[in-house]
Amino acid sequence: MQPSRHIPLAGASNFRDFGGYPTADGRQVKWRLLYRSDRLCDLTAEDYVALAPHRIRFVYDLRRDSEVAEAPTIWRGEPAPELIRAMMMPDSAGPNTFQRIAADETARHDANITRKIMRRMYENMLSLPAPIAAYGMIFQRLGELDAFPALFHCAGGKDRTGAVAALILDLLGVAREDIAEDFMLTGLYYDAANSLKNRVSQIVSTAEIGHWSEEALVPIFGVERDYIETFLDILAAEGGAERFLTDKAGVEPAALARVRAALLA
Fold first, then answer.
1. Dihedral (C-alpha) 206, 210, 214, 215: value to the nearest 10 degrees?
2. Does the domain formed by 16-263 have CATH 3.90.190.10?
3. Domain locations along the chain
4. How does pLDDT run across 118-142, given as a tens digit for each residue?
5. pTM
């Protein structure tokens, strides 16, 4: 019997295991070593009890400093993991995607524009110096001894977390279709639990930045297959995760070999 992929928690709706996928060489990504989630600041005492058996050793926080300051992770469970800052985009890089869209009066009511901006973000996650540096640090750490179980999270557990998960799975030889399906599970867990339509309606009603179209906000807060397909197209053009991580992110090939050895069975 396969373990449950989704781990239901009161304080994080998108907490899940992204192991278990078959690889091109006939092996399988091990279960209970790779986790991904939305933000962790709302975890309850009961959630920590539920997470204890998973014995997470390292938590990689991909958020900006401002996001961490607003919603810090204060781990209250045992065993306590090492919390690692792996910022994908610093505050010094300027407004985040939502803020850029909010400042664009046309984008606030045109879903085609917001989708284009979202796709550009996925392109940036394979081209800008900050995310590439973050990948370098993450994968070098993953290549160390006893680097797992590891948890990766951002705010919603979909975009930045989705990029890191896609790189890991591609490195391990997981099929593109399975990588895309894993990405889309956010639509099942996060969107459903938080009611995407309700969240968008609330933002429209409370925002004090002019007119918003609910239709234009859905591409920002939901997940769409085109986003991860854009990311995977660029990654394939770079020669795949291994070449990208060694050539662009400076990760030692030996470290990537150790990641495979630790995660594949």
1. -160
2. yes
3. 16-263
4. 999 999 999 999 999 999 999 999 9
5. 0.93
